[in-house]
């Protein structure tokens, strides 16, 4: 019975220290494995020598030694496997611890950010933005109002139509007249059969008759009268 209460438990070793200890134990097992492998090979060589020398008892003894070394090697292999599994588990735990610590930091920062910017503050900011945008639209519409006396749109449209009509009349008057040429469809040429070339006779000059004395006098009289 413990008169001073429960025995105080020793603090758990750190994950990094535990992993280091297991790695050292694994290295020692590998050294032991290498030594046993040499002994086993040596026992096999001795067994073959004893068998050649017809020393049956000696050969069986060396084979028994070889079997014992093989059994120890199997045990070492199992130990190394268990240590490797423990190392992997510890490394996974260390990784989980690191990730969990980072997630806690992120959760703490997120909680603080949510507290600093609560929903009511967000609503107030959005209301201010909407109000400012409404004022800006109202200000823009006020600045876009027309300045000066209002004009009659119908009167302006009528004046524009009259001006366009006058311009069209002026263009028609100033345009040069284009002569219209009657286009006759050409008749197809009829190819006549080859014939002997025709001789074109020149028209003979009319033989002027000699004027009588009376005719000459009449011509002179007409010239004098300007006829």
What report would you give on this structure?
With 227 residues, the chain is mainly alpha-helical. It has a domain at 15-121: Helix Hairpins, CATH 1.10.287. It contains five helices and no strands. It has helices spanning 15-52, 56-116, 119-143, 153-174, 213-224. The model has no long low-confidence stretch (mean pLDDT 79).
Spans of at least 5 consecutive residues whose pLDDT stays below 50 are: none
Radius of gyration: 66 Å
What's the CATH superfamily of one domain, by name?
Answer: ESAT-6-like
CATH names the topology of one domain as: Helix Hairpins
Any chance you could write out the topology, listing elements then pairs?
Blueprint: H1 15-52, H2 56-116, H3 119-143, H4 153-174, H5 213-224
Helix pairs in contact: 1-2
Q: Which features does this protein show?
A:
0% strand, 227 residues, 5 helices, elongated, 70% helix, Helix Hairpins
Brief write-up:
This protein is mainly alpha-helical. It has helices at 15-52, 56-116, 119-143, 153-174, 213-224.
């Amino acid at each position: 019975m413990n008169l001073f209460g429960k025995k105080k438990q020793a603090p758990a070793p750190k994950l990094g220290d535990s992993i280091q200890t297991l790695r050292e134990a694994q290295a020692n097992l590998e050294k032991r494995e290498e030594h046993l492998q040499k002994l086993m090979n040596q026992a096999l060589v001795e067994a073959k020598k004893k068998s050649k020398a017809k020393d049956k008892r000696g050969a069986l003894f060396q084979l028994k030694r070889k079997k014992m070394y093989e059994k120890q090697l199997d045990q070492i292999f199992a130990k190394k496997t268990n240590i490797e599994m423990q190392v992997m588990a510890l490394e996974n735990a260390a990784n989980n611890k690191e990730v969990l610590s980072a997630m806690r930091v992120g959760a703490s920062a997120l909680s603080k950010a949510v507290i600093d910017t609560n929903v009511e503050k967000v609503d107030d900011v959005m209301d201010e933005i909407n109000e400012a945008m409404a004022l800006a639209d109202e200000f823009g519409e006020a600045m876009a109002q027309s300045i000066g006396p209002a004009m009659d749109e119908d009167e302006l449209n009528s004046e524009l139509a009259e001006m366009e009509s006058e311009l069209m009349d002026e263009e028609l008057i100033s345009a040069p007249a284009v002569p219209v040429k009657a286009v006759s469809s050409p008749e197809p040429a009829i190819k006549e059969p080859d014939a002997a070339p025709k001789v074109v006779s020149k028209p003979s000059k009319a033989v002027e008759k000699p004027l009588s004395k009376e005719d000459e006098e009449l011509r002179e009289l007409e010239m004098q009268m300007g006829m």
